[in-house]
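S.,

Sequence below, as promised.
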Amino acid sequence: MKKIYFKIGAFVCLSTLFTACGNFDEINKNPTAADIDQVQIEYFINSSIIGAQQNPDIAERAFVLYWKDAGHMDRIGSLSTGYTDNGWTTNYFNGASKWLGDVNTAIQVGEMKIQSGNIDEYSNNLLQVARIWRVYMMSELTDLFGPIPMNGFQGVNPDFNKVEEIYDFMLKELKDAVSKMNDKTVIDRVKKTDPAYQYDFGKWKKYGNSMRMRLAMRISNVDPARAKTEFEDAVKGSDFIASLSDNFKVQEKPGWDPLTGVMSREWNAQRLSTTINNLYIGLGGVSTEVQVKGDAKALAKVKPENWMGIKYEQQFTTKTNDPSAGYWFDGLHAKIDPRAYKTFIIPGQFDNPEYNKYPSWAPDQTGKTERPLLKPRANDPEKTDTLVKIDAAYCWNAAVAGSWDKKGTYNRVIGWPGCLPRLANRFRNSSESRIFFASWESYFLIAEAAVKGWNVPMSGKAAYEKGIEESFTYWNVSEHYAAYIASENYNRVGTSVKWEHVAEPSATVSMEYKDGETGETKTMDYKYPVNTIYKNGSVRNDLLTKIITQKFLAQVPWLPLEAWSDHRRLGLPFFENPARELPLEGMPALTESNYMTNSWDFFPQRVPYPTFLKNNVPEGYNQAVSLLGGKDDIHTVLWWAKH
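The prediction came back faster than expected:
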């Protein structure tokens, strides 16, 4: 009787789950044997895809505390302020090692079956699916850490590889795997084991091509010729993810397993970030009055377009280049991106079924929108008097992460559940499908390629507007699409929507505000922030800025790792610096004298390897760091992000 012997993927041995592996020489033993008829490729693919959804324990640490923070899709203050946690890192690293081990085993099984002739007519396609999915898993790890042991995925000793080598392998894998897929179909039993596409191989080919487009664009700064060749080849047949029905997504479900929602942990507030807020406000020129019609409370709180809010310099940080720093907006903005109120629900809008009331065990906190700001006593700054109680109901604000020092003590509003807009309930209760790649991304990639002058199947404008249209359809705001794409209104960072409108905003805009100390109405000159890491801050409204702005907003909330990667390679969209009322231990380059200027040193570039790698596999760790080309910390720039 024929037997099939499984090799544990070498990378898995690096995980603490497998520290008993010890020396690299021991990892290729065959601990498991089974009849070849009993082993099915699809089971291992299923295990890898389901695992990569991340159970709530891993998801809180990786997806939320790392990716969403670094990608500025949440206000947390971990990576974005220079903080990492070895426990979080190890937790994710262990899981990812297992998921890669599973898909590597699927590939080994597929190759063995084909070699033995013991196959179904669709076995070849399953093998190609496994190769495509392995590329995604490899990209997730290398984009997070840098060098990884590419050979380990093939069952041999885990020598680490340069990021450049890994990208070369991934691009070749995608091209070859897609080219080898045929039109064979699977039986119903097998369909059920694919949580993404139910083994619709036409859709898997589209995903493979779209992934190749993503990875090709990722290397466009450092290897533009290779990027152009790969991208043009991947897109030439227009066989990419082009509609919402083609999206690579996996349905979540309530519970406590890998299919439980990645943003379901109740104590994570999932607040609107300052970055998103600055992009939303004014963008597209669609009025709030139109968007909230029928809601009398909301309509009563709409402010004039030139209103800045209330200035509270003692309770809100001002040591950041967030252009709204120091102000509390005491209502709703006159104009805002139509996706804003769908993604993040207005505080106090309790009758909205999408209003999230987590944590469920503390309804007294989540149901209250009134909190005090405290004022330090002039004769004794260590003591405070109540200055004012703020009712945050129907007020739209975001707060910068970082060090607020005593201002954070005086401010009881920004940390209170329910006082800031929070992510819609549908993304918290495990009822949505988690998206790994969506149609809008394909179009924004094509738009960027067109701006670069590459040969693509549509114009930059057509692709850009189609990407917006796909996003608007997803959010069910298509009625605003026509007005939105024609808008020349600038958002808070000086970017507009209309493709042809590339005029730069004026240096300042006259705005009115209320002095929180005196109650007087005053005038100030609002200054658009200077994004000095993109073209030295010379532009705010060119075509690439428009594309990445729209791509970023479309990716919210599902693709923070991709948003972080875009920022690392481009410096777009504008990310504000963290608050620096006191020095940040993990970001010593941010000082009292430079917090108004963007610098690559103020934004994390990667996650350090888990310490068990250094302690248990020193040879591999030292090799990885030498290939990284810098210190094993958050500031070392990955190969594809070099500028």
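The two ends are 57 Å apart (CA to CA).

Coffee later?
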